[in-house]
Amino acid sequence: MKAERLVPFLILAVLLPCLAQSDTKLKIKGLREYAKQGSSAIPKITPYLEDGDSEVRREAVRALVDIGTQRSLEPLTAACRDNDPEVQMRATDGLVNFYLPGYVEHGFSASLKRAGNKLAGKWTDSANEDAVEPDTPLRPEIVKALSDLAESGSSMDARANAARALGILRAKGGVPALTQSLKSKDSRLIFESLIALQKIQDRSAGPRAIFLVRDLDEDIQVTAIETVGLLGAKEAVPDLKRVLEKSPGKRVRRATLFALAHLADPDSRQTFLSLMNDKDDEVRAAAAEGLGRIGNSEDRPALERAWDSERRMSPRLAVAFALAMIGNREVSDFSPMGYLINTLNQKSWRGIAQPYLSELAKRPEPRQAVVSAVGRISTRDEKTGIAQVLAGCGSKDAVPPLEQLAKDDDPAVAREALRALRIVRGSVQ
User: Fold this and answer.
1) What is the CATH number of the domain that holds 34?
2) What are the pLDDT digits (tens) for 377-424?
3) Residue 303's Cα: distance from chain center in Å?
4) Which of 167, 201, 235 is a domain's end point?
5) In a domain? residue 58
6) Are 413 and 402 in contact (CB under 8 A)?
7) Exposure string (b/e) for 367-377, b if CB count within 10 Å is 16 or more?
8) Shortest CA distance to 58 belongs to which of 32, 22, 96?
């Protein structure tokens, strides 16, 4: 009799998992259909973010990301608070994708693969160049959700991915979370936080990264050195000099000298002068940059000799920058400024020439030289490059030349000039 009573329970024990599995499949199938319906289906998808089955919640996030409209932002922000790492990472990339369309195709979540309960993804550095426009308005609740995730996500990958997202979105509100993450023992989280701080460009964060310039992990050390330099952390100069004293390898030596060049400490002047004839091209470039930023007119003869003799592209561009910083602002085919502008036509070197010009354009006198060049430049690359240079100068005297470029017959030039106008006008109001 007792055995007969156990039969129904045994049947249920066998059937319930099957029924649950079937229910999960039905829900996932339904969510995929909802995703095809667009934003009107979001109210139907959102309740599934509370489902007890993490597989269903993951599919709900995928559906919201596929829809990708503004109405997806609120539920994706809520999904960042999920306790499943995959849900957190897919929601993070979905939020970034709204501001940077196409991001989900190469973001970290695109590489996620699951084998049973194990989740793995492949980190690539392709997203290190990704960033939204500087004037992109962000919802504070999104910045808060990503900051919380960077500090206390369910996995180190989820935290590192959130740190990457804060950088791509240039979220200044995320700086406290990022600087706190620098104290982590996880190399990926530290690396992504450093890169994010470089993109956000909040100079107050620079001193918080100094302790990492002597890290034992070379990737972290180099990235930290670059970060303190780019963020102008002058307090890092003694530590950087101690790094040089220990005769570091080529990669660390280059990074350290470029950081010192950015910090432009006058006490580094003799070091830079002594390296102007170094056999390493990048070291000569760093030395020239440093002399240019220090701005001692007595160094002009040494830089002019280098300008006449240097044949390697990287240090030659750096010497052109340094001479323009010190006072040679003539714009002609054979002048340093003219050389920097002409190099905008070279795809391989544009990424070096343009930042130099952007830095020059932030100073009144060099900016006038850049402005004066607008009337003589003729190629698309020169015009779009100068528009991008003036976009970051933060000065109203950039408006007239940008208005001139906005009337260009080339639609690509006009678009870039209009974008630059929007940024400049927003920064000077």
Assistant:
1) 1.25.10.10
2) 989 999 999 999 999 898 999 999 999 999 999 999 999 999 999 999
3) 32
4) 201
5) yes
6) no
7) bebbbebbeeb
8) 32
Q: Residue 24's pLDDT is what?
A: 85
Of the candidates 152, 165, 229, 221, the residue with the CA atom closest to the CA atom of residue 192: 165
Domain around 42? 20-104+134-201
CA distance 134 to 244: 34
pLDDT digits (tens, 9 = 90+) for 338-387: 999 999 999 999 999 999 999 999 999 999 999 999 988 989 999 999 99
Find, among 18, 19, 91, the residue nearest to 54 by Cα: 91
Whether 98 maps to a domain, the answer reads yes
Per-residue pLDDT at 16: 47
Among 186, 201, 216, identify where a domain stops.
201
Nearest to 353 by CA among 363, 362, 365, 344: 344
Q: What is the DSSP letter of 423?
A: H
Is residue 161 a contact partner of residue 125, using CB atoms and an 8 Å limit? no
